[in-house]
UniProtKB/TrEMBL annotation:
This is Protein kinase domain-containing protein. One of its GO terms (molecular function) is protein kinase activity. Residues 67-165 form the Protein kinase domain. It holds the Pfam family Pkinase.
Amino acid sequence: MLQNLDFISENELAEWVESHLQTDECALSTGYQGRTLLYQESTSEDAHKLVIKVALGNFLSRPVNLSLLRHEYRVYQKLQGMDTVPVCYGMVKEKYLVIEFIEGMTIRQNRPEKNSEFYVKLLGAIKEMHRRGVAHNDLKRKENLLVTHDEQPVMIDFGVSIIKKNRLRWLNGYLFNLVAQFDYNAWCRHKYDKQIHELSDEDKKYYNKTFIEIYSRKIKRFYKDRVLGLF
């Protein structure tokens, strides 16, 4: 069900999605899990724009991918009202996730300077996200962090985020805290452009490389140096 969307009905949007799924005309991205489409009401500059995420796959993988999409919707519900997260308008027919389109560039394309207010606002957004019981889990990926024209941070793509829950409290709490540290480490890497040795005394308290990050790096290095060297 869609909420706070008055320029198109749910049925109209569903028809639009189904008519554009098989073409690349409005595709923003396509992966093994799904496709992301850009809906634009018209060609005028002030036309309404929406990002629509669709789960894809075969009879085995599609239910899993659809479950991840619904999980992302639950995450957006918990983050409702944060100006550093796109507005989520809901699910169309319980299978298409509809999100606000944000004009901006990825931090890969437009990285603010280290002393920019951008990183202060991003850190505040990460703390608020954690306070609401969500840890992003993939902020290190530069495509998941947008920089608007006035250098405001926007976090996107919450498909693998962890939600803090009461059930399985020990395991869930452990995973949440681990992933929350991933988020802080990603913030440090973005701010210092991976030059961790330059961390200020104030920022050092946010960086704590986890054992997963340490060993995944070693595995990647071994693969690159030893395995690929055989071919």
